[in-house]
Design brief:
about 525 residues; alpha/beta; Arc Repressor Mutant, subunit A; 6-stranded mixed sheet; two-stranded antiparallel sheet; 20 helices; 8 strands; globular; disordered C terminus
């Protein structure tokens, strides 16, 4: 009896892999379903998801979407990952690292992992440094000590540091922790702590802001704990006012930082620009070489006086965020008399939080950013006042609610989480066995998408089902605006109804009744 012919293994193209990643992250279908749809094995789909960063990087680097390539495994992935984390940890400890030191550490990891053929050659070292854009032959950390004259010395040299760059090409980026829905006064007791686990960790985000000396603003980056919060179901991520990413601790890592930097570098390249980006010495900020961005680091322990973001920009955004948070709580309490303030606050979702952040950043004025750069010494003309130009005042009921929920007045709300750690500052014990260390690192990178505890605000049945219903709802809103004498708001909804009616007519003529969640997605 003739043997059954062996089926040829199918390898997906890069374009198909990107589509797999897109559909998986959208939710609603698992690896088994995707394997059936694409005609491949479940294992291949799982490997694509596992290595999504590499495929996305290929795609962003304009690799041909028709190319078929299996990612080559060298067998040294564990060694490379451990060496990179060890290098970042040594930078954090301000330890001078040479090439031979790194090679010696790599050999130690290889022995403990049982990779006996690994040689830690000069070729491996060069590849490692190139992969992570590490500068120079000797990798040196900055001095941990700082004298009282460092701030003045920096300001004197600032004109030389920024020479050759126009104000619109001088940027500052910084992270800040945000308890997006926690209201307990206990938040005041965790200042400076990691907050990496437990109940509070689920209520924290890391906010990343970047702006130029001329007042230009980059899209905020939000780092959450979950890769796919339940509230993001059916949401077009590209339409959000922020870029959302995640890791298991909801803080910045060197990998996330490099990914963010690479996108900014590519953007500046497309615009034909060269920029200077000033940063603090956080362990998650490795010094890398880029094509269109020059990195410059503030002296250690000086950012409270030298970093523009710390002169009022972050505080302004947070206060605008808290104003929206309290306004929403007041609205919930008005709608449901049996609800407590804490219950209303706890119902806030990550989706609402990122929308609040986006709106707060959009409202932060160019004038505020300019003043904060001047206050940090980026101009010969000092800032006229320490106050930001668009500081928010509390609305009716907000002062009482701030005291009840946070134990402080409204203006102090910007400070309740200002010292929350935004990256891992704990020192890892590298004398432990490499297998244990590698397992620990991989556990930190796991996808916690199924662990997010979100309060579902409304059932699917309560959503607006189609354009017909939305047009009717908007008409009701217009009537309410007219009854309440909200003239300006009525004008806005008049324009919105006209736009919706035009789209509805076009869709109706085309014979398509579009679902509302499809309607709002970017084509």
């Amino acid at each position: 009896m003739a043997s059954k012919p062996k089926l040829e293994k199918k390898t997906l193209t890069l374009g198909e892999k990107i589509e797999v990643i897109r559909r998986y992250e959208k939710g609603g279908v698992g690896a088994r379903g995707l394997a059936q749809d694409f005609g491949v094995g479940k294992t291949q789909i799982q490997n694509i998801i596992k290595r999504k960063r590499e495929h996305i990087e290929d795609y962003e680097n304009n690799a041909p979407t028709s190319k078929r390539r299996n990612v080559r495994q060298t067998g040294n992935e564990g060694i490379n990952q451990l060496c990179w984390e060890w290098f970042c940890d040594m930078k954090k400890r301000v330890v001078e690292i040479s090439g031979p030191m790194l090679q010696e550490q790599a050999l130690k990891f290889a022995e403990q992992l049982g990779v006996h053929e690994f040689k830690a050659s000069t070729g491996w070292l060069d590849s490692f440094k190139k992969r992570h854009n590490i500068k120079g032959n000797t990798m040196v950390g900055e001095s941990a000590g700082v004298s009282s004259t460092v701030v003045d010395d920096w300001k004197e040299k600032l004109q030389h540091i920024t020479a050759g760059y126009a104000p619109e090409d001088i940027y500052n980026m910084d992270e800040s922790g945000l308890f997006y829905r926690t209201t307990s006064r206990k938040t005041l007791a965790v200042k400076g702590e990691q907050c990496s686990g437990g109940k509070q960790a689920k209520d924290r985000l890391t906010l990343v802001l970047c702006a130029s000396m001329a007042g230009g603003k980059e899209k905020p980056l939000i780092i959450g704990k979950s890769a796919k919060p339940r509230c993001f179901k059916n949401v077009n991520m590209s339409a959000l006012p922020v870029t959302y990413t995640n890791n298991s601790k909801a803080w910045m890592t060197s990998d996330l930082f490099k990914k963010w930097l690479k996108k900014l570098d590519q953007k500046m390249g497309r615009q034909g620009r060269k920029i200077l980006l000033l940063l603090d010495n956080a362990p998650s900020h490795p010094d890398v070489t880029l094509n269109n961005i020059e990195l410059k680091f503030f002296p250690p322990n000086t950012t409270s006086r030298l970093q523009p973001m710390d002169q009022g920009i972050i505080q302004t955004v947070k206060l605008k965020y808290r104003k929206r948070q309290l306004r929403r709580i007041l609205q919930e309490l008005e709608n449901n008399k049996e609800l407590t303030g804490t219950q209303a606050a706890k119902s806030l979702t990550v989706l609402q939080a990122v929308q609040f952040v986006g709106a707060a950043w959009r409202e932060t004025s160019e004038e505020t950013i300019l003043k904060c750069f001047r206050k940090a010494g980026f101009s010969e003309t000092p800032a006229e006042t320490t106050e930001t130009s668009d500081a928010d005042e509390s609305e009716a009921g907000m002062e009482e609610l701030a005291q009840e929920l946070f134990g402080c007045n409204f203006q102090e709300l910007a400070e309740i989480d200002e010292d929350l750690a935004t990256c891992n500052t704990e020192v890892r014990d590298w004398d432990r066995d490499a297998s244990t260390l590698l397992e620990e690192l991989q556990d930190e990178e796991r996808d916690d998408s199924d662990e997010e505890e979100e309060v579902v605000q409304a059932s699917i049945s309560s959503r607006v089902p189609n354009l017909n219903s939305l047009v009717s709802l908007m008409s009701d809103i217009k009537n309410l605006c007219a009854e309440e004498g909200l003239g300006e708001l009525l004008d806005v909804f008049d324009q919105a109804v006209d736009m919706l009616s035009t789209v509805w007519s076009q869709r109706r003529l085309a014979g398509r009744q579009t679902k509302i969640d499809q309607f709002f997605k970017t084509k």
